[in-house]
Amino acid sequence: MADNFFRLDGKVAIVTGGGQGIGEAICRRLAAAGAKIAVFDLSQANAEKVAKSLGGAAVVGSVTSETDIARVVKETEAKLGPIDIIVNNAGITGKAGKTWELEREVMVNVLDVNVVGPFLLCKAILPGMMVRKYGRIVNIASVAGKEGNPTMGPYSASKAAIIALTKSMAKEVVGHGDITVNSISPAVIHTPILDGLPQSTVDYMVSRIPMGRTGKPEEVASLVHFLVSGEASFTTAQCYDISGGRSTY
Ligand SMILES: NC(=O)c1ccc[n+]([C@@H]2O[C@H](COP(=O)([O-])OP(=O)(O)OC[C@H]3O[C@@H](n4cnc5c(N)ncnc54)[C@H](O)[C@@H]3O)[C@@H](O)[C@H]2O)c1
């Protein structure tokens, strides 16, 4: 029986894209529960701002670079200790457009950040988790990965891919201790990522949500908090919706 009521004291969490938006809310929530946070972001200024306010570590680089990841993991372990929790949150939408209007680079870049990045970070940290026999991984997918948003083909494909990668990894680590791997699929959440999308695309996404509103980063952070807690120990390979009722499967 769990006895910590979701406390994360002593746990070390690395949150990619932690410098703003949903990632920042996750950093703040996990820190409030007692975790030591490594804020991993491309933006040094944002990573430092969030890390400083939480007494955590700013680790700067791109999730697409294996060299950056090796350095960031080393820096995190040196400053905070071995990593118990990974939240693969960094993501980009890429340019909006119909498939025949988009360049190859759009697809490649979106897959690189949204799928290859989480793959590389887990590849770097999972062996240590298996030795320590403990770990919690949450990958931020999207309802786009279940439904396929028009004019967001590369993004939707990348989020379907991370849902499947989550399930594969979850099954691979069974037998190596208390390690779980889950994903979550938010519908549209009010963050700066929306600034890069046409208003018509945002309106379309909100119109599909039965609750008729955007979600808040703090609402996403509370679901992540449960999934990275010691208490979520019989829950793995799942994709949880946080979508105001948009996706019902
Ligand atoms: N906001 C939404 O409506 C929504 C809905 C569903 C899913 N999501 C997903 O949630 C996650 C966070 O979204 P958000 O709205 O907070 O985005 P955001 O654009 O506000 O923040 C993303 C953060 O990731 C960082 N980042 C981008 N590329 C990176 C890289 N290569 N390496 C390291 N850091 C990088 C950025 O610097 C930024 O700080 C994304 O994976 C997104 O796809 C968002």
Q: Could you list the spans in which at least 5 consecutive residues all have pLDDT below 50?
A: none
SSE succession: EHEHEHEHEHHEHHE
Rg to the nearest angstrom? 17 Å
Q: Kindly name the structural category.
A: alpha/beta
What small molecules are bound in this structure? nicotinamide-adenine-dinucleotide
Strand order of the largest sheet: 3-2-1-4-5-6-7
The tally of beta strands, per DSSP, is: 7
Amount of beta strand: 15-25%
Helix amount = 40-55%
- How many angstroms does the end-to-end distance come to? 29 Å
Question: What does this protein look like?
Answer:
By secondary structure, the chain is an alpha/beta fold. It has a single domain, classed as 3-Layer(aba) Sandwich (Rossmann fold), CATH 3.40.50. The protein is 45% helix and 16% strand. It has 8 helices and 7 strands, in the order E-H-E-H-E-H-E-H-E-H-H-E-H-H-E. A 7-stranded parallel sheet has the order 3-2-1-4-5-6-7, sandwiched between helices. The protein is globular and about 45 Å long. Bound molecules: nicotinamide-adenine-dinucleotide.
Task: Write a brief structural summary.
The chain is α/β, with parallel strands linked by helices and 249 residues long.
